[in-house]
Amino acid sequence: MFQIRDLPIGQYLLPLFCLIYKTNTQCTCQLRLACVFVGKVAIRKEDLYKYCGKENWFQLQPVDPHSEVQGKVHLEMKLNELITENGSICQQLVVQIIACQGLPLISGQNCDPYATVTLVGPARSDQKKTKVKKKTSDPQFDETFHFEVQYLLQPKGNGTKSKPDDLGSLRLKVTYTEDNVLPSPCYMALRNLMLKSPDVKPISASAAHVLGDICRESVGYDALLPVVRLLLHHNRLLPFLTSVAALELENTQEANTIFRGNSLATRCIDDMMKIVGKSYLTVTLKPVLNEIFESNKTCEIDPVKLKEGDNVEVNKENLQGYVHKVFTSITQSSSSCPPLMCDVFRSLRQLASKRFPADPHVQYSAVSSFIFLRFFAVAVLSPHTFQLRTHHPDPEISRTLTLISKTIQSLGSWGSLSKNKLVRQLLVRRFRCVHVIFNREVHKRAQGRKRLGKKNFKKRWLRVTNQELSYHKQKGKEALCIIPVKNILGVEKLEESAFNRKNMFQVIHSEKPLYVQAGNCVETNSWIEVLSQVSRCNPGRLSTFHPSAYVGGSWLCCTETNESTPGCKPCTATLLANIQLDIDCDRETERIFSFFSSSRSRLQKMEDACAGMSVYLGQQEECSAFTIQDPKETFRTIKELGEVLDDLQAHHDSKGALTDEPGTM
């Protein structure tokens, strides 16, 4: 995002795109107005760190307009004089967007282009947008826009002419990161110390918690992101999040303020949702957001911000329609929620109920404070940040998204819901309603629930909903057996040799496995996919299974005689659920080291505070800046950290940490 100021008179803002690229020596941002480059900002690589995380005004420098041409725009502009009803003369700028040619391809394919025309003035700005043209790099627009410019176009510098070489300024926020990663063995000690964090009692004495504590004043909780990524890669994130959430709840006095602040626990859970929930957001929100962007209905309901000709009642209906679609997409998305998020939310519900047993609603507000307020509402507000849209929305759509996001936050707050009986009833019904997901005629093997019954195959109607799996003698008949979805521990294929039948699968649950033969291989895969999806967040999911049956006193697959012997093959669903993200553990550990190194003085103060508490047996004034529950255990962790950090710094010194390699942005 950028801002522009002091552009020469006669230039009208017609942004096509802003090109940012990297070189080994500098980062260059070029600003293009109409089909002419106005200027560029160039920052030397060695100076990037000076501007990291800050917004600065940079003077625009001249640029060769032929060096980075990416297409052409055909437009016509003219300034007319109109006589108003009261006899005064008003100027009107007419801009006709005729066509574009040779627009850049996105991932080798044509994009869906549109043009925005923005007239910027000292008092106010006005923006208009063309219709979207589908799948083309040479769009024909032929659209005309009119702007009243009596108060918009003003001479620069109180009427004085601008200098020919004065191109104005560009406001940028630069983020620069340079990592000097050592060989993997160098990070083993620090990595192991961080991975041990979830097991440390109390959790505040762990290396991960200490890092968040000492970096809180300097970089907030940004230092926790590499910790979250490292723990996630090694399947250690869930116990850590559970522990830090429990610690925060210990210090929460009222149920209505649960997880509302910016804390170590909330930041870690936020980072986790952003990492593992990307595809979840795409499936849930992208279709409805695309509809909002393309239809672009006005939703302004603030009387102060209404434009001439707007109908507040129509706008209100538009907003209600959008909110209904977004909220429906969210409340019907439970089957797409990533397993880790389900596990974390389950832990939060249990912790909240234990902390406030007299409040029946707290288990819901504990989850809604994250899933609605910190996840979906944020994604709706800034879809481009979550890769749900490729560009920042224009002002009108941005305002619409703001109104939808605020409404979603309100609806997602259990405190607000408890005051609105109708909405609460709708929510409860929506979450409790039964959805039939899949049903087919199958052949089912008798489970042997009757001691003298024959274990043969019979035709049955198999039906799965979001709550239960059941089989019936015929479609529409009463269920002969019901297996709650929450009791399913695994769904896997069964070897053909088990019963000399093809297209077999098994449903492993709390009782004997259910063996089913589908009509064909496609239906077999569909059953496994559907049942695995609805049960993937169940506690106690199996990690191994037997691919064959227990017949004649032994498992046919591994010949084990004990029927309760754990499976001999990894579960397919577990393998898929545990596929790790592309995380470079050495780089994440190096970032953790960098945060520790930049806060060594704070680490020393925390060590001194622990020593003081141990000697004086009480909370001292200098200890209030840190979370120290067990001074001796925390002191032990800090001493171990100091040794590990010193050793890693020695490796950097011996290898020559500073290199001439370009950094990353």
UniProtKB/TrEMBL annotation:
Annotated Ras-GAP domain residues: 227-413
Q: Which UniProt keywords apply?
A: GTPase activation, Metal-binding, Repeat, Zinc, Zinc-finger
Q: Does the keyword Zinc apply?
A: yes
Task: Show the GO MF annotations.
Answer: GTPase activator activity; zinc ion binding
**InterPro entries from the UniProt entry:** C2_dom, C2_domain_sf, PH-like_dom_sf, PH_domain, Ras_GTPase, RasGAP_CS, RasGAP_dom, Rho_GTPase_activation_prot
Q: Which residues form the C2 domain?
A: 69-213
Look up the record and give one Gene Ontology term from the biological process aspect: intracellular signal transduction
Enumerate the spans annotated as PH domain.
435-536
Q: What protein is this chain from?
A: RAS p21 protein activator 2
